Amino acid sequence: MSDVRDPDESSSGSAGAGSSWPFDEFTSGNTDVDAVLSRLALLTDTPVAEQPELYSDISDSLLAELNQGRQV
What we know:
44% helix, 3 helices, mainly alpha
C-alpha cells in the first residue's frame, strides 16, 4: 500500500480544509481492489437507508478479490 494516510490525520472524524471523502489519493496497489474501493464514492449520493446494501456489496467484492488472490 503506497499511499496510506497517517492514522492521526484521518481518525479525527472531521475533514480538514480542502479534504474530500473518500480520499481520492488512496490506492491499494492492486487495480482490481482499487476498482472495488472506488465504489465507496457512491456513498455520498446514496440515501442512508440504502448504504448497508452498498457496504455489503463492496465487502463481498473485496472478499472475492482476496479469495481470488489466494487461488493464484
